[in-house]
Amino acid sequence: MKLYGAIEAGGTKMVCMVAGGPDEIIAETRFPTTTPAETIGRMLAFFNEQMKSHQLLALGIGSFGPLDLNPASPTYGYITTTPKPGWQQTDLIGRLKEELKLPVIIDTDVNAAALGEFTWGAGQGKDPFIYYTIGTGIGMGVRANGGLVHGLTHPEGGHMVMKRDPQRDPFEGFCPYHGDCFEGLASGPAMNKRWGQKAETLPLDHPAWALEASYIAQSVSNMVLTLSPQRIVLGGGVMQQEQLFPLVRREVQSMLNGYVQSPVIMEFIDDYIVPPALGNQAGVLGSIALAMQALV
Ligand code: ADP
Ligand code: ZN
Description:
The chain is of the alpha/beta class. It is built from nine helices and twelve strands. The chain has helices at residues 36-53, 94-100, 109-120, 182-186, 188-195, 208-227, 244-256, 263-266, 282-293; strands spanning 3-9, 13-19, 25-32, 56-63, 78-79, 90-91, 104-108, 129-134, 138-144, 147-148, 231-235, 273-274. The strands form three sheets. It has a five-stranded mixed sheet, sandwiched between helices. It has a five-stranded mixed sheet with strand order 10-9-8-11-12, with helices on both faces. It starts with a strand and ends with a helix.
């Protein structure tokens, strides 16, 4: 069996895994994200221990960002301008590469999750394919034309400009950069600030859900119009509220208003905007899939 290492690096917790795929998970550990030195130290301890009994072929990392993903850059693999205290300009891959002596491949947490869902989950055979996470932050990973999308930097769909009706939603958003961007209006903490209680405690019939769905639908509609994805997965903590799915689907149909003449949108949208098939393992399994790419 070919085995790989994976790290899902999140702002609150880290998940490390050794696996050959979703059905061949050998070991997994999670610990809180503290300082870079301590956190990277714990990653090294886990993989060093695992490598005493397993040969790993490569290490894949899906990380919070923003990240420098330009292989020609002297700061390749760094977390760059994150607002997370202590983590600005952190070399995430240097020590791992040096001490584990493995090929390391890194991408955004959401690109990794997109690859995970593409490889083993709801994105199989779908190109372009988009993965959103709607949780503490909002992120968007894109796989298109056979690969994960990078460019000037990488897609930052969580900060998409939103149309907000101040009558319906007087909350001005809380993104430190943009105020009422997508993340500023629709992330879990945005819901918490707007309604004065955590999203998971809001009742099913609360108007919060229709408003939330309308922001998600704005972003999804814009992506349908720009990239013409073949399927869209909506993941992350907030999307555990299953009632959001039908609301988002109806809003997308209403916003597109018959313009995108595909039966997938007009009739089969239930199969188009879907939850992640890998659940909360999309990110870490996607990082296993990233590691597999290090060798091809
Ligand atoms: P992270 O984004 O930190 O990886 P999550 O995707 O679980 O973690 O997102 C956490 C956010 O999602 C929090 O703001 C929380 O309030 C919200 N959240 C978590 N679970 C639920 C739920 N079942 N319903 C609504 N919101 C939730
Ligand atoms: Zn923003």
